[in-house]
Amino acid sequence: MHDQQPHLPHLPHQQQPPHNSTRFPVAVDAALREAGWQPGRWDIRQAEEWADALRAHTSPAGHRHAVFPAAVEAWAEFGALHITATAPGRQIAPAAVRIDPLHGLHLARTLGDLGRALETEVAPLGAEGEEQAVLAIDTEGRVYGIDHTGDWFLGQDIDEALATLITGTQPVRLTSSPTGAT
Q: How many angstroms separate the CA atoms of 124 and 36, rounded?
């Protein structure tokens, strides 16, 4: 099992629909604003409280959470939002998203394992649906979904990940590839 690492696919940036002068596609912008987001939103106090709670938590087996700037920044801008799509999905049903890293509080080992496999650190970001999947973010800001069917790459950054989830774009499954193959 240790001889395989998840392979992060090379993904070209997907063509986005016309923007309405924001950084998000129209449907994503509408869903974010409906949830209470606006440009410049920044709740660093809440983000720091979550960071402290995650740092203080240790699993029974001694696993701890990673906390780093990309995660804290995502929590500060989008934290506590419950985002629901305002349009039908493109390829799959759009997902409701709740940005709250405490949804992953008891998954320190799972997130640590994913981080080791990806050769980075991974922190909890929130949940998809009624907690069908946990959302996670790495030190570079890439976002992943972890559910009972596997691990999914949602986007190169929080913006792409929100677009993937809210527009119902099919995410890419992380796959294992042998590291010693010739």
A: 21
The percentage of the chain sitting over the pLDDT mark of 70, rounded to a whole number, equals 85
Q: Distance between CA atoms of 92 and 167, rounded to whole angstroms? A: 8
Strands 150-155 and 143-147: antiparallel
| Eight-state DSSP code of residue 3 | T
Instruction: Give Cβ neighbours of residue 49 (< 8 Å, ≥ 6 apart).
Output: none
Residue with tokens 């987001």: 37
| Contact between 142 and 121 (Cβ < 8 Å) | no
Element (H, E) at 83: strand 82-83
Burial readout 86-96 (b: 16 or more C-beta within 10 A, e: otherwise)? beebeeeebbb
Helix (H, G, I), strand (E, B) or coil at 162: helix
Sign of CA pseudo-dihedral 169, 39, 131, 73: positive
Q: Are 146 and 152 in contact (CB under 8 A)?
A: yes
Asked if 32 and 162 count as a contact pair (C-beta separation under 8 A), the reply is: yes
Q: What is the pLDDT of residues 72-117, one digit of tens each?
A: 999 999 999 999 998 899 999 999 999 999 999 999 999 999 999 9
